[in-house]
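Plasmid mobilization relaxosome protein MobC
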Amino acid sequence: MANRKRNIQMKFYVTEEEKRLIDEKMAQLPTRRYGAYLRKMAIDGYIIQLDTTDIKRMNAALSAIGRNVNQIAKRVNAGGGAYKADMREIQERLDEIWQLQRRILSSQR
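Predicted structure tokens:
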């Protein structure tokens, strides 16, 4: 062990599904040794990090609209009417969502 080039052992556990996926990807390469494949992927594999800030903002806007609609529905069901200010608020939120969606889609090109 002292004369080995790679003298540090690393271990980790996977589920059956994860092992199946690793085997499928490994089958696409000429290697049959897990150590060689996993070492290559750990060192040279890609890490993809997505910026989901706009999507989170869009989800927050959708939640706000949902709350407004629930409040309006509760008031209408209790015998009250819907207010123009409520409708204006919903329209503004919808416009914000459309803008966020356009920005998200244009950044994907």
